[in-house]
Design brief:
By secondary structure, this protein is mostly beta strands. The protein has no helices and 17 strands. The protein has a single domain, classed as Porin (Beta Barrel), CATH 2.40.160.
Length: 268
């Protein structure tokens, strides 16, 4: 979750037992976005995490998306099941295991095209589109360190989409790289506050074996996020996220600002 706090503070990090299963239901309580037609937003997601021994972790995320879109005086609302993601994490070095060496984790994942792609949308503005229509694979590394109440995280991810075929045309999005840096403070209550900077860049897309000129994408986002315990199994999470308003920091991607408040319930 590059736009929020590092996953270590919101997932099943920790030891205790060879196998440890944790389930989370995350629901959006409120979202304010500008522009209002900026795209799909998760309204609810089910997340299952299985801790394998002390260093391994497997996760399954099932998102449900909703979109409010306006254009030319027409507004519409749509949504549905998004693309299901399966991910894995292996902590080669646990955070705090060595005094001067940060935690190092290997990340990998697969996104399945279970959502509805844009060409299959039935509404006029495509607001019921909830997926990319292609398998996606990710591979990356996360470096984390904690100093008392302070934490820092740097994550680098590479994402490659599989080819997809639309009306007889084969197209593949270019290789995408994402780098994020986060820092924050963990409260005595178990909550956390963090600041996150995310930069995404991609290569040009390929259509029918030919590179599409000037189709590369880019995006740079700055976000402030917080997570606060409400009860033993309930947590409130909020984020304020915005694209940096510099031409060189974005390309072929919509820009906007969003404020979100989410409620999480976990079982383990």
């Amino acid at each position: 979750m590059p736009r929020d706090l590092p996953s270590r503070f919101l997932s099943a990090a920790g030891s205790g037992g060879a196998l440890r299963l944790r389930a989370t239901i995350l629901c959006v309580a409120a979202v304010l976005a500008w522009p209002s037609s900026s795209g799909a937003q998760p309204c609810c997601a089910g997340i299952g995490t299985l801790r394998v021994f002390q260093r391994g972790q497997l996760s399954l995320a099932v998102p449900f998306l909703e979109t409010l879109r306006s254009a030319g005086g027409t507004s519409e609302f749509g949504g549905g099941l998004g693309d299901i993601a399966v991910s894995g994490r292996y902590d080669a070095v646990l955070t705090g295991e060595y005094r001067w060496l940060p935690g190092i984790a290997i990340l990998a994942g697969v996104v399945f095209p279970t959502g509805k792609p844009l060409e299959s949308a039935s509404l006029l503005l495509g607001s019921d589109s909830t997926g990319t229509g292609a398998f996606q694979g990710t591979l990356g590394v996360a470096i984390e360190q904690i100093w008392g109440h302070l934490f820092a995280n740097v994550t680098i991810l590479a994402l490659q989409s599989a080819p997809r075929h639309v009306r007889g045309v084969s197209e593949t999005l270019g290789l995408q790289g994402t780098a994020s840096a986060a820092a924050g403070y963990v409260l005595d209550s178990g909550g956390a506050l963090g600041l996150n900077l995310v930069a995404m860049r991609s290569a040009d897309a390929v259509q029918d074996g030919r590179t599409v000129p000037d189709s590369a994408r880019g995006k740079t986002v700055l976000g402030l996020a917080g997570a606060f315990p409400l009860a033993e199994r309930w947590r409130l999470q909020g984020s304020l996220v915005g694209d940096l308003p510099f031409q060189s920091m974005g390309k072929n991607e919509p820009a906007g600002i969003s404020l979100a408040v989410l409620v999480m319930r976990t079982w383990q």
